[in-house]
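Recap quiz, item 2
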Amino acid sequence: MAAPWSTATGVTRARQTPRGWSALPRRRPPRARPPLFAIRAPISRRARWTLVAVSILGSFGAWWALSVSGLVDPAEYLPTPAATFAAGLEMARSGQLFTDAWATIGRVMVGFGAAIAASVPLGIVMGTFRAGQSLFEPVIGLVRYLPATAFIPLLIIWLGLGEPHKATLIFLGTFFFNTLMTADAVRGVPAAFVDVSFTLGARTGETVRKVIIPHSLPGMIDSVRVNSAAAWNMVVVAELIAAESGLGYRITRLQRFLQIDDIFAILMVIALFGLTMDVVLRLLRDRVGRWV
Amino acid sequence: MSRATLELVDVSKEYPRRGGAVRALEGIDLHIERGEFVCVVGASGSGKSTLLSLIAGLTKPTAGEVLLDGSPVVGPGPDRGLVFQVGAVYPWRTVERNVAYGLEFLPISRDERRARVAWFLAETGLTDLRHALPRQLSGGQLQRVAIARALACEPEVLLLDEPFGALDVQTKEDMQLLIRGIWQDTGTTILLVTHDVPEAVFLGQRVVVFASDPGRVAADITVDLPDDRDLTDKRAPKFLALQSSIEDLVRSYHRHHTGT
């Protein structure tokens, strides 16, 4: 008895007649490109560090060149890097820089800290349970589009000019985005991981604790990192408008006296703090997510 | 009164789709005795994975009953261990902590848990890898972790869904010997789904052939081979004859499925 596949198999092929066209035209092969321009090709360590150096030194160089060139009045528009550094050093020596920085950092810790404490659990609930998503996403998805800075006049009316107003502004600027990003990280847990957990005897709460959260943790840290930039922006804006201490406040004071080299020094400090925060959180994320 | 550990009584499963429901399984009757090693073969689309989902309690049947020791299955649990084709081993936990996962919920002492985990690590040849992270492991090693993890919970039935499908032939055969060894050492009831007919014949005491469209039991064949098997048996005439007849059967149902 012939085996079922000794004749036709399940796939039908059409019989082809000789083709009526000539050989396919060929393009000239592309010229070899150096690694710098090849997609995703690794570049040498030397090349990498050279480019980083060019980027940083080039920017400083352009700044310096512009400020000493005479095209712009250094006293009124663009202080030299040296003047900026000297001004910063003076503020640090007098201690004023640290008191200002401490005030600003404190506000970030309170406002952003509260936002994290509220958004992470909510994000976990929204990402784990469809019911949570249906309940919260419409409101959060909408309010997210209201710029937090637009709330400043309202917050001043409601809360006055003191600390609550600034903490609330930071909270509003970060809570909604962090909730949604946390929910996204949580939703990224593969269904198989969750199913297997139940087949090993875990209950719902235990699965959330032992599978969903550990898996989402690097993503959650990353969304905190991204939103820390927003928190930092918010605090400076709040201080520019209504404050009696802090780096943003210091900028408005200096503006009255046209101390632009001091202002630039503070801007540099603000940028460096933000960068430090970013690097620290990046390192934390990589440590926690060693397994990724 | 049936002595069956696992029983499917007229089980059907339908999935709603646009333009009509898809019948993944229809009228499945299956009896598996305690301690049996049963393999399910069939082409894609024959509802083999759905079958395991139903037994594991991850979905409910549209009709019929899934019974374990006479009681209906209501949800997933450690009494029905499940191993997927891609093991779903937790990447943030070491091998040892993965295997310990199911035991962490139970009221046993840490020492007892450690001892149990060590036994199953030894049984699956993972003792030297117990502190490794999953991303350092090969596919075969990951599957061993998944198997050890499910076994550590001492399930009534171990369900394996094409567990060796993603592995190369040599690793696959090592794993086949491993699972038979585990079966002989622990006496666990095993239900293994595969599309690899020689694997099914090599591993099982029974081979159940599934047809597709809709998924249903086409044949239930007893494997008349001795219990002590090794890889060279795959070339024996008796083995090859059984393998051929089952392959013919699977292909005949496949041809009906594709309409040729």
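The longest helix of chain A spans residues 204-241.
Residues 84 and 261 of chain A are 5 Å apart (CA to CA).
End of item.
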